[in-house]
Specification:
82 residues, mainly alpha
Amino acid sequence: PLLDGASEYLPAARIDRDKIRKDLGAEVAFLEKKGTEQYEKGEYRECIATLNRLLLIDPNNKTARIYLPRAAKRLEALEKLR
């Protein structure tokens, strides 16, 4: 997140951000799978953490964009029941 903000003003920060995202790109499929499995198991808090990490690597990830709001709504509903 810091590099995203700095990249607007510093080209070097943009280069560093893109390099880090490229290096971590191999984790995208793993995090997608892990996040969806956590969602299916009802582990919403863990799912949210996993998908937020995924969005740091791939901000436009479709899986995270779909499952993250769903997990947040389910977690909120469960917390209201407690």
